[in-house]
């Protein structure tokens, strides 16, 4: 019984990895179930046992990405006691990631918002949930730091992060990684009590 569960788990993982790669390379709408099963080597029947539809597969990828994002976030702020420094550390980490690999600022959730723009689509809802949770976390850090208008500042910082991720896709390696840190520092400083 346990071997069967491990096989199912391995098949599910293979589908997630394969689909993620294909969606990243070609987009969500351009990749069909047939391509996913062909590339993964997993049968269509097995895929549908794990994911009743392509949309369910996309949501599972988004959920996995959400877990990885929060793991990255916590590792980034771990050991930093000052909430203002935690905020800056987020921007420094994003800038550093971009400097090492411009593709690292590709945002799966922004891609979902473009390809699934309707608010009642399950993928869109998952993307919105993820982004709203980031916004709430930024607001919490702004409050903990004792900064003026924490909700307003959090929104500004959120827009800065999102804009940097999107603009990096257009500008590439020349994207202003250092400037995003300076802009965040300027916003934070402007909201000191």
From TrEMBL:
Residues 32-51 bind DNA. It holds the Pfam family TetR_N. Residues 9-69 form the HTH tetR-type domain. SUPFAM superfamilies: Homeodomain-like, Tetracyclin repressor-like, C-terminal domain. InterPro entries: Homeodomain-like_sf (IPR009057), HTH_TetR (IPR001647), Tet_transcr_reg_TetR-rel_C_sf (IPR036271). Signal peptide: none annotated. Keywords: DNA-binding, Transcription, Transcription regulation. Transmembrane segments: none annotated. This is TetR/AcrR family transcriptional regulator. It comes from Paenibacillus mendelii.
